[in-house]
Design brief:
Elements (H helix, E strand, L loop, with lengths): L1 H29 L10 H19 L3 H7 L2 H6 L6 H13 L4 E16 L2 E14 L2 E14 L2 E4 L3 E3 L3
Antiparallel strand pairs: 1-2, 2-3, 3-4, 3-5
Helix pairs in contact: 1-2, 2-3, 3-5
Length: about 160
């Protein structure tokens, strides 16, 4: 029993350190003043922190946390107004059936400011490593970032031809 406990504890520590190292690396790598120049300076770091949380929530399959990071537009239009419980259950089922798409790594390459119906939001283009239907693939993607009451929310991932 003690051996099993130590093995599990060692695995848990390795996973925590890996998650921390990857997340720290992604955040440090993704912050570039020129790259994020389109984002207002006073909210730039908040965006980067939330984007890192978005990627981490996808990578770790923390669907409850991920739901809270999606914009209301994404929840209503893409996920058809699902509740957090319904959303999490659907994604877990998708993982079981190897039908889901999850973001494992995202390296921003370009940010564009966009205005729609008088509301500003930002398109973040970059290179991504995805878990798509059980396979690891590299894609060019775009993620929309929507500032709402001082907090950043995101769209679902969309693939593009190139960033």
């Amino acid at each position: 029993m003690n051996t099993v406990f130590y093995v599990r504890a060692a695995i848990a520590i390795c996973l925590m350190l890996t998650t921390w190292a990857v997340g720290s690396h992604a955040q440090a790598q993704s912050f570039d003043e020129k790259l994020f120049a389109a984002i207002p300076a006073e909210s730039r770091m908040k965006l980067i922190e939330r984007l890192d949380l978005y990627v981490t929530s996808q990578r770790t399959a923390d669907y409850d946390k991920l739901y809270d990071l999606y914009s209301q537009k994404t929840i209503s239009q893409v996920f058809k107004g699902q509740s957090k419980t319904e959303f999490s259950a659907a994604f877990r089922k998708g993982d079981e059936d190897r039908a889901s798409v999850r973001l494992f790594e995202f390296i921003p390459k370009r940010v564009e400011k966009t205005t729609e119906n008088g509301v500003d939001f930002y398109k973040i283009y970059g290179k991504a490593t995805l878990l798509q239907q059980g396979e690891t693939v590299k894609r060019h993607v775009v993620i929309e970032a929507h500032p709402q009451n001082g907090t950043w929310y995101f769209s679902a991932i969309a693939t593009v031809q190139r960033d």
